[in-house]
Design a protein that fits this description.
alpha/beta, Rossmann fold, 4-stranded parallel beta sheet, two-stranded antiparallel ribbon, elongated
């Protein structure tokens, strides 16, 4: 809040280098006015903006996020990166809605390098909307601890969400209006509710290290003759370990929408091979 009691939001703009950034630059050169509390980050393409960037911005206290790119079919890269941004933002809005956040806090617009006045108008309009909405989370009736928990939950699921919605995220549809209905609230609710978790059955694990070598997130702990354990904080729920585990062992189990059993304590993870057991038994008898 300012000294006058007026809410001044923290707003972040992530804008493409070739068009929207040029529009922002022209806006400044032309002395068109927009609120000074909007901070801009330049990226080479709006398609480079990821779900994780958006949730990181909100997690660090931003009240709103703006994504700006080239007009459709004017992207400087092939394939058209702004289609990727359009699909990503559509999904992100539904994810924000899922956790109780007003999706209007995220906005995507196309601005060319010659549209300085358009950039200023968008910034003024968007900032006015966010001022009316009020502080992030608080205006939605969510306390700070609960808000942090909800954001962390979705952020952790982003790799899984991107894998599950890979085809839609890569969609290039010239009809922009159809992106508004590309994802449904029911679809996103089901996606989050049925997120998989994987754990390694200690009675079946043979410490072959196949899953540990294949895991792209290095989320599997264990070594030679050590029962492997999946670190749930690092796991991205991609299912690679489930597919990699040799069928003759079948040690990895998936659960959907349910917590996994707690891991074995470290001092109970050593595997004693049968041949070693026989040797120790014979030595004790001699």
């Amino acid at each position: 809040m300012s000294s006058e009691g007026r809410f001044k939001p923290k707003m972040l703009g992530i804008i493409c280098n070739w068009c929207c950034y040029g529009g922002a630059d022209l806006c400044g050169v032309s002395r068109f006015q927009y609120p000074p509390y909007i901070r801009l980050i330049r990226v080479m393409c709006s398609g480079r903006v990821d779900l994780k960037h958006i949730f990181l911005a909100f997690s660090t206290g931003q009240d709103a996020v703006f994504v700006g790119g080239c007009h459709i079919n004017d992207c400087h890269y092939n394939p058209e990166g702004n289609y990727d941004a359009l699909s990503m933002v559509s999904l992100c809005k539904k994810l924000l809605e899922h956790i109780g956040i007003n999706p209007e806090r995220l906005r995507l617009e196309w601005v060319s390098a010659g549209e300085g006045i358009r950039f200023a108008n968008i910034m003024n309009e968007f900032s006015g909307e966010i001022e009316a909405l009020g502080p992030f989370g608080k205006s939605e009736g969510i306390d700070e601890i609960e808000l942090k928990s909800r954001l962390e939950k979705i952020t952790k699921l982003i790799p899984y969400i991107k894998l599950a919605k890979m085809k839609k995220l890569a969609l290039h549809n010239p009809n922009q209006e159809e992106y508004a209905t590309l994802y449904t609230s029911e679809e996103v609710d089901s996606l989050i509710r049925e997120a998989p978790s994987y754990y390694i059955d200690p009675d079946k694990c043979q410490a072959c290290m196949t899953c540990a070598r294949r895991c792209p997130a290095e989320a599997i702990e264990g070594g030679k003759n050590q029962i492997h354990v999946i670190d749930e904080e690092k796991c991205i729920k991609c299912g690679t370990c489930f597919e990699a585990c040799p069928p003759r062992f079948g040690a990895i189990t998936g659960t959907w929408g349910e917590p996994v059993p707690p891991p074995l304590p470290l001092d109970q993870r050593t595997i004693v091979r049968k041949s070693k057991e026989k040797l120790e038994k014979s030595l004790s008898l001699s």
